[in-house]
Design brief:
Layout lengths: L8 E2 L2 H23 L4 E7 L3 H16 L3 E7 L5 H12 L6 E4 L9 H7 L11 H8 L8 H13 L7 E5 L6 H10 L3 E5 L6 H5 L4 E4 L17 E4 L3 E4 L8 E4 L4 H4 L5 E2 L7 H20 L8
Parallel strand pairs: 1-11, 2-3, 2-4, 5-6, 5-7, 7-8, 8-11
Antiparallel strand pairs: 9-10
Helix pairs in contact: 1-10, 6-7, 6-10
The structure holds the ligand Nc1nc2c(c(=O)[nH]1)N[C@@H](CN(C=O)c1ccc(C(=O)N[C@@H](CCC(=O)O)C(=O)O)cc1)CN2 and magnesium ion (MG).
Amino acid sequence: MTEDGMTARIIDGKAYAAGLRGRIGDHVARLQKDHGLTPGLAVVLVGNDPASEVYVRNKGIATKEVGMNSFEFKLPADTSEEDLLAKVRELNADPSVHGILVQFPVPDQISQQKVIDTISPDKDVDGLHPVNAGRLASGLDGLVSCTPLGCLMLIKDVMADIAGKNAVVIGRSNLVGKPVAQLLLKENCTVTIAHSRTADLAKVAASADILVAAVGRAKMVKGDWVKPGAIVIDVGMNRIPAPEKGEGKTRLVGDVDFEAAKEVAGAITPVPGGVGPMTIACLLHNTLIAACRQAGIAAPEGL
Ligand SMILES: Nc1nc2c(c(=O)[nH]1)N[C@@H](CN(C=O)c1ccc(C(=O)N[C@@H](CCC(=O)O)C(=O)O)cc1)CN2
Ligand SMILES: [Mg+2]
């Protein structure tokens, strides 16, 4: 609850992402004017998963909107691992490509980890390569994965200085949980990483000034798991049946019971419209940073 006893501030990730894309667009225009450099992002989609097709299309549109070059590659669902890795190596060597992203999930015959390992760490705008994970853990400049970076930006928009706060991250994936925890540690939070084997998870969660839920289980975090006034960041994107919308229809919910938690939290992200839109904006952010570094130009800070 906010100080005046009202329900939580609803953190508008869609609006924040739009503002961030605007600032990125300004930097891209300046890069072109001052250095003749146009950042380029290559996105590779294997197969025709409908959700992935939408995300890839949206990435292409957003990339062009900020003035970057977008290179899209659609490979058939039966593409071999070696052929995909060969495509990645070709993009690693292409100087007009500053960022590379292979859309996940990839078909079963392809190892996601091998794909991640093959992308040049300097072009790894998803921030998933072990070198970038290591750089983050070591406090070195690297590329930070997009969803965690988006979470941190939203948290810092609510509270600029979070040093000394108790942060609890529920979930320990390489994609979200671990990098979010590292980012919060870098901001001098006291960080707990909780997970499915954590004893008395509800009590641990209720100790958090900042609670990040990234478990992938619909509405798992209940209202009484939230400390009054806490910042709650919901990374979950779970499709559940929605018979009220018609037979066979679904709706998207997070890992947090939003209706209950918003009565207790100080600020909370909705699903949809919270963390999700930040992912693509942060991808553009990372492509801009990667392009500057590859060209030996000072990368913008604190966008
Ligand atoms: N290589 C990657 N693959 C995937 C990633 C990723 O970051 N890198 N993330 C997801 C998919 N994704 C981007 O690729 C993505 C997912 C969701 C959203 C988003 O804006 N969600 C909306 C709701 C959308 C809906 O209604 O279905 C929201 O939360 O408001 C953006 C990007 C998996 N693959
Ligand atoms: Mg969201």
